[in-house]
Amino acid sequence: MGLKVYINGELLEKENAKISVYDHGLLYGDGVFEGIRAYRGKVFRCEAHVNRLYDSAKAIGLEIPLSRQEMIDAIYETLNANDLEDAYIRVVITRGTGTLGLDPNKCHEPQIIIITDTIVLYPKDFYQNGLELVTVPTVRNHPAALSPRIKSLNYLNNILAKIEALQSGVVEAIMLNKDGYVAECTGDNLFIFSEGKLQTPPPHAGILEGITRGVVMDLAREIDIPVEERQLTRFDLYVADECFLTGTAAEIVPVVRIDSRDIGDGQPGKLTRQLRSMFQEETQNAG
Ligand code: PMP
Known about the structure:
Layout: E1 4-7, E2 10-13, H1 24-28, E3 31-39, E4 42-43, H2 46-59, H3 68-81, E5 87-94, E6 111-117, H4 124-129, E7 131-135, H5 156-167, E8 172-176, E9 182-185, E10 189-194, E11 197-200, H6 211-222, E12 227-229, H7 234-238, E13 242-247, E14 251-258, E15 261-262, H8 270-285
Parallel strand pairs: 7-8, 7-14, 11-12
Antiparallel strand pairs: 1-2, 1-6, 3-4, 3-5, 5-6, 8-9, 10-11, 10-13, 13-14, 14-15
The structure holds 4'-deoxy-4'-aminopyridoxal-5'-phosphate.
């Protein structure tokens, strides 16, 4: 039996899960989404993800025709229909089928899509030996043009940065914001540990406020590590003792080299490893 995909209240076989080529999600990237994880049958930080989804939708003037609780129920329904305990969940809300023109008012029915699949983690090597990153020329979206706080279906900004990283022979990019400060990676937030403080760019640096980012900040405070949201320059990254990425799919990944410079001693940091093991415990125990 193949995987079932939820579309507008129906569970369809993967092969039959289709939407119109006139959907503005496809034609214009007009829609929002979430990437969520389930561990041991429990959706991790479900409410936080659903809240961010509804905030993203509100910011683009898209009304999701389900209550938040109905959305949570639909996520669990899809997970259970596929008999999945550990899974990656993708919730996509498109503006719906419209005309070839831009007018969103001509799209009448948002499409609600929920895909649950077995998780594809980054290779083990990244976690054990750390990742190398480069800063790329593509600047993170100007918040006044398209706020990075909206998790929209328009990811071209991130994809261009990803292409630049891949062309440089690494798998992730550091994107700077319009003022030249560090923003985030193409699909993950960035942290450094420097001068005894865990530091990460603030939301106004033009980032997606990652849910994993929030969990990691809480975990650090639990072990009395001061946490600071501050504007970071590339210099701050180069001279940091430790660096790591956070994201739903990635969890916590050590970063050991940036723009050909070793970070700290070029090995995954001690705090990074400690936070990673605390995070893993959190995913096994918390919902
Ligand atoms: N930044 C961007 C651009 C992202 O797409 C994501 C999610 N993949 C993140 C950060 C991390 O957010 P979260 O921890 O909520 O997955």
